[in-house]
Each structure stands twice: as C-alpha cells, then as structure tokens.
Amino acid sequence: MAAPIDVAVGILMRDDGDVLLAQRPEGKPYAGYWEFPGGKVEAEESILDALKREFVEELGIAVLSAEAWCCVEHVYPHAHVRLHFYISREWRGEAQSLEGQAFSWQGRVAVEPLLPATIPLIEWLDRVRYGQKL
Ligand SMILES: Nc1nc2c([nH]c(=O)n2[C@@H]2O[C@H](COP(=O)(O)OP(=O)(O)OP(=O)(O)O)[C@@H](O)[C@H]2O)c(=O)[nH]1
Hints:
alpha+beta, hydrolase, metal-binding, 8-oxo-dGDP phosphatase activity, 8-oxo-7,8-dihydroguanosine triphosphate pyrophosphatase activity, binds 8-OXO-guanosine-5'-triphosphate, single chain, MutT-like
C-alpha cells in the first residue's frame, strides 16, 4: 500500500464550545461532504505551518496557536491519509468562503454527511467540549 499522505486539520473552538466545519467544494473527492478545514502537508513543511497556510487560503483566518490533539489514519479509494487534528482557540479574522465552500459553526455537530474518517472524531470532541455533562 502507498505511504500515507499527511493532512493538517484544524478545529477552531470558540469560547462557547462551537466548532467550525466546512463543506468540500465541487471538483474534490467527496464534494459536498463536511469536514474540519485543512489540507495536505507539502514537502518541507511542518504540520502546523500547513495548517496555518490552509486556513489563510481557504478561510482568510490567521491561526495564532493550535495544540496537537489526535492523529487518525484512513484508507479511502482515492488515498491513504494520516490526519493530524489540531485544536485552536486563538485566531484572528472572520471566516470567509474563499474557495466557494459553505461553512458553519456547530455546537452538537448536526451537518451531514461527514467525511468517513472524521465521524469518530465528533464523539471524542464532545468529550473535550462537554465532558462533565455526558
Ligand atoms: N481537511 C480535512 N480533510 C479530511 C478530513 N477527514 C478526512 O478524511 N480528510 C481527508 O484528507 C484529505 C485532505 O485533502 P484535501 O484534498 O482536502 O487537501 P488539499 O486542500 O491540500 O487538496 P488539493 O489537492 O486540492 O490541494 C482528503 O483525502 C480528505 O478526504 C477532515 O476532517 N478535514
């Protein structure tokens, strides 16, 4: 099997716990599926730098700090990916749809469909956000 492709994925978390999801634009595999914003790490780039670059390119947001949270591998028909999820509570700017994608702030995540590799993350994330109340 081909070596996994590293992907940097960012979960922006507001003070009220809401997180930002984006819908994959037309022309990409799984167009119309919801995901946390991010993209492939380029050669010679750190994961955090890739995360910051993708947020500027896709949403016009400057991520000021982010903490590595978890890493998930998934084999799709089109790619074997290694997803590096980061949580950021500190950024500058309002999300803009720079690639024509829809996006949405969500409490309990209710948008669907979600990218298959991202589905288990939602439950783990709820433990981070609402731990005591579950
Ligand atoms: N950003 C993001 N990607 C995810 C998530 N879950 C998940 O399986 N992926 C997978 O990770 C890969 C991300 O690649 P991408 O195509 O979005 O990256 P990119 O923007 O650099 O693509 P490009 O090749 O068009 O420049 C895709 O295979 C996608 O299916 C997620 O929650 N967020």
